[in-house]
Structures are given as structure tokens and as C-alpha cells.
Specification:
Distance between the termini: 57 Å
Order of helices and strands: HHHHHHHHHHHHHHHHHHHEHHHE
Shape: globular
Strand order of the largest sheet: 1-2
Oligomer: single chain
């Protein structure tokens, strides 16, 4: 597919998003930007959050893991289910009871200003790293397979994409994103199904026959029973549960959509529905990865990892399938960045600058500050994407989940200490604990083979980090107690 066609598709897609933004952002103010006027239909939020939860990383990276890991990633997704139950029935009631706009306000209510700011900054760092890594992966695919041939440099592609994202999120914020994410999820899942059907038809097999072949080649393996392996199924299950709690329940981007739903009951419906759908969709991505390997082997293509799906779709599938892949890919791209920039803007404005608590600022002044912050985060995203391009990590999904173990761990420890104890904290030492715990976690993880008899940490590293943070907070607790909120 030519680069001119690719750019045309992206521009047309953007114009559609811009039209939705114009329609949804009419008469939108700061309350609309941050919480969508608390009128978002739960079923629309649930469906749109599929795209946000999956992103381009799932679309490109998950199918490529099948050759070496089989379907073992599905245990992580099953862990998500249990984590989402905790979000629905522990965290959401808390957020609705306190009528929060920023979920980190809970830390202010529970401990004080320093813990509040620390939690918000932890989110800002965590979401910036994760979202820009996802964004980088999709831009890299577009660049390598389509835009390099047109001599368009990587930085120009990144700037162009971010300008598009800022343009349709600039005014409406959450009120717009709830609906654009729904459109993008539809296109992404449609592309996934179309690719599965095409490959099965090309191989002249149905689902049952394909599954038999996957089992014969060892691709359908679900459980890793090696306790010392990072992929051991219990590590995946436990790690997945805590990844869901932290990267959804303690993440302003994900929660601002949930708490934009009018009632707690409907928000809980949203989370439970999302958790069930994600199991099926991730299974379908893994199944696609399996049949893509069967397709590649049948045609003599030596492909693997993140390059498998894009290379086949863009260089070996018919042009119409390449077109479907591009639409699905950019549909996966935008939710991984638009919601992140919006949530980061909201968190910085509400938690760090405190614009809603400043009675001296008019609505117009608040809007001006919000827009400047929004543009600033777009610039931060651009710089971060360029850094990832310089590093050029080839296994982005593994990188993101590993980074989450270090960046979200202190946030997990902070919230767990607040929810499950009555202790207050020595506020001055909270940032110290939250900075030291990832460092201690890293030292343990790097030396676990010698310290723990050959044990290697997987995604449960997040839990270890959270426990170390919790222990550190316990050591710096004050003598005062506060009743659970």
C-alpha cells in the first residue's frame, strides 16, 4: 500500500473523529472535559474502554507472542477479571461515595496533601511512560511499513499524529473521548475479525481444524507449570489481577471514564462487562497469532514477534486486507493516546495546580490553563516517543508491563494502606518511601536467581513493589488513626 493512500486514510479518519468532537463538545466546559457531565451511558463506556484497554500494543504484539509463549498470556487476562472485580466492588464505591473528580483526591482525604500530590505524580509518570510506549509502537509500524518509502521522517509522523489527537480532544475531553473510543473500538475489532476470517479461508480450514493444528505445533499451550519461570501461570494470574487494579482502578485515565457514568451501579456494570469481553477479545488476538504463524509457515515466511502481523498484512495480504489493517491499527493508536493526554491534563490541573479549588480563577481562566497544560503534555508525548525510537525496544508489550511493575507499585501500596488500615502517615516521608520502593524492588528482581534459589519474577513484580511500599508506609506511620472512609 502506498504512503499517499495511508496518509489519505489517516486524514479521512481524523476528519471523522473531528466531526464527532465538534458534535459532542458543543457547549462543553471544564466539567464536561473532566467528567463528561457525569452523563456517559455505561454500555458505551464499557465498549469504548475495550479499545483503551487493548491499544495498538495488543493489536501488534500479542499475536507475535504465540510462537514462544503459546496462549499463556491468557492467564494474565484471566487475572484481569479478578482485578476488575476488586475495582468494581472496592474502589468504585469509594470513588462514588466521595464524589471524586480526580481519584487521587482520596489520598488527600485519607492522609493529606503530600500523599495526594505524590499519588498524582506517580500516575503522571506511570501513564506518560505507558501511553507513549504504546503510541511509539503503532507509529513505528506505520513508519516502517508505509511512510519510510515516502521519505517522511519518524519525527514528522509523530508530530502529525499528535496534532490530530490534540485537535479532537482539545475542547471536549472525556465527553468526546467516550464516543470516539466507541468508534475506534468498533473499527479495531472489525479489523481483527476480518483478519481471522481471511487467514482461515486462505488456509482452507475452519476454527476446529485450526485449533487442532495449533495444538499439534504446541502453540495452544495455556499453562506454564515451571515455578521458576517468569511465565508461570500463577505469576501471570496474580500479576494480571494487580495490573488490572492499578492500571485501571488506580489510573485516572481509566477511572475518569467510569466515574463519568451517572450511578455506581451502572459503573460497576461497565467494569464487569469489560472484564468478560476482554477475555474473549484477547483469546481472539492469540488465536489470530496462531493462525498467522500457520499462514507464514505454509507460505515460507520467516516472521516472528511484533513484525509478524504487520509484515503479513502490509506485504503479503491483498491490498484490501492491508487497508483493513491500517484502519484497525490507527483505531488502536488513538485510544492509547487521546485518553492519556486528557487524563494527564485533568490530573495535573486538578491535583497539582488545584484549579477547581482556586476561587480566584474564573471558568475562562481555568479553561486557558487547561488548554496550555494539554498542549504541554502533547509535547511531552512527542519527546517520549522520540526517546523510545532511540531505544528501539522490540518487545513493547513486555516492556510496558515490566515498567508498570515499577511505576504503579507505589500507587498500589499507597491506596492499599489507605483502604485496609486506619493508620495515618508521617507525610514528609511518603515521597521517600515511594521513591525507594521501586529501587529496592529492582535490586531484588535483578538478584532473585541467586537470592531465591533460581526464582525469576514475572508480572507479579507489581505486587512485590506494592508490598514493599506498604511495608515502608507502615514503618513511617504516625500514632494517630483515622477511620476507614
Amino acid at each position: 500500500m502506498s504512503s499517499s493512500i495511508t496518509l489519505t486514510i489517516i486524514v479521512l479518519y481524523f476528519l471523522l473523529l473531528l466531526a464527532i468532537s465538534w458534535y459532542t463538545a458543543r457547549n462543553a466546559g471544564n466539567f464536561s472535559f473532566f467528567l463528561g457531565n457525569k452523563s456517559s451511558p455505561w454500555y458505551i463506556v464499557a465498549f469504548g474502554m475495550i479499545g483503551t484497554s487493548l491499544s495498538g500494543v495488543t493489536f501488534v504484539s500479542v499475536p507475535g507472542t504465540v510462537e514462544t509463549a503459546g496462549f499463556t498470556y491468557l492467564m494474565v487476562v484471566l487475572g484481569y477479571f479478578f482485578g476488575y472485580l476488586a475495582v468494581a466492588y472496592i474502589l468504585l464505591p469509594l470513588y462514588y461515595k466521595l464524589q471524586l473528580t480526580s481519584i487521587y483526591s482520596y489520598l488527600q482525604n485519607r492522609f493529606g496533601q503530600t500523599s495526594y500530590k505524590t499519588g498524582a505524580l506517580l500516575f503522571i509518570v506511570s501513564r506518560t511512560v505507558g501511553a507513549t510506549a504504546r503510541l511509539y509502537l503503532v507509529i513505528r509500524v506505520l513508519q516502517y511499513f508505509m511512510l519510510d518509502d515516502a521519505n517522511i521522517p519518524f519525527w514528522m509522523t509523530a508530530v502529525f499524529i499528535l496534532i490530530l489527537i490534540v485537535a479532537y480532544t482539545f475542547k471536549g475531553g472525556v465527553k468526546t473521548i467516550v464516543w470516539t473510543d466507541t468508534l475506534q473500538t468498533t473499527f479495531m475489532l472489525g479489523g481483527l475479525l476480518a483478519c481471522v476470517i481471511y487467514v482461515l479461508n486462505n488456509l482452507h480450514i475452519d476454527f476446529g481444524a485450526a485449533w487442532q493444528q495449533l495444538e499439534l505445533k504446541g502453540y495452544a499451550k495455556l499453562l506454564n507449570s515451571d515455578v521458576k519461570s517468569p511465565g508461570y501461570f500463577l505469576k501471570h494470574l496474580i500479576g494480571g489481577a494487580f495490573i488490572a487494579v492499578t492500571m485501571t482502578g488506580l489510573d485516572q485515565e481509566m477511572m475518569q471514564k467510569n466515574i463519568s457514568v451517572k450511578t455506581l451501579k451502572d459503573s460497576q456494570k461497565n467494569i464487569v462487562t469489560l472484564s468478560l469481553i476482554l477475555i474473549f477479545v484477547n483469546f481472539l488476538f492469540l488465536f489470530l497469532g496462531g493462525v498467522l504463524y500457520l499462514y507464514a509457515q505454509a507460505n515460507g515466511y520467516a516472521l516472528k514477534g511484533d513484525d509478524l502481523f504487520p509484515t503479513l498484512a502490509m506485504k503479503h495480504f491483498p491490498p484490501i486486507m492491508g487497508l483493513i489493517f491500517v484502519i484497525a491499527l490507527i483505531s488502536a493508536l488513538f485510544p492509547s493516546a487521546d485518553g492519556a493526554i486528557t487524563a494527564l491534563t485533568a490530573s495535573y490541573c486538578l491535583d497539582i495546580l488545584g484549579i477547581q479549588r482556586n476561587e480566584k480563577l474564573s471558568e475562562q481562566q481555568q479553561t486557558s490553563i487547561r488548554r496550555k497544560v494539554h498542549l504541554s503534555f502533547a509535547l511531552v508525548f512527542l519527546l517520549s516517543v522520540m526517546i523510545f525510537n532511540w531505544i528501539d525496544n522490540r518487545s513493547v508489550i513486555d516492556l510496558i508491563l515490566k515498567l508498570a511493575g515499577y511505576t504503579y507499585g507505589p500507587l498500589l501500596g499507597l491506596f492499599a494502606f489507605g483502604v485496609f488500615t486506619k493508620h495515618q502517615l508521617n507525610e514528609k516521608l511518603v515521597p521517600v518511601v515511594c521513591l525507594l520502593s521501586p529501587f529496592i524492588t529492582y535490586l531484588i528482581a535483578e538478584n532473585s536467581v541467586s537470592l531465591l534459589g533460581g526464582y525469576k519474577f514475572g508480572y507479579e513484580l507489581l505486587l512485590l513493589n506494592g508490598m514493599i511500599t506498604w511495608l515502608g508506609l507502615y514503618l513511617v506511620r504516625s500514632s494517630r488513626e483515622k477511620q476507614l472512609v
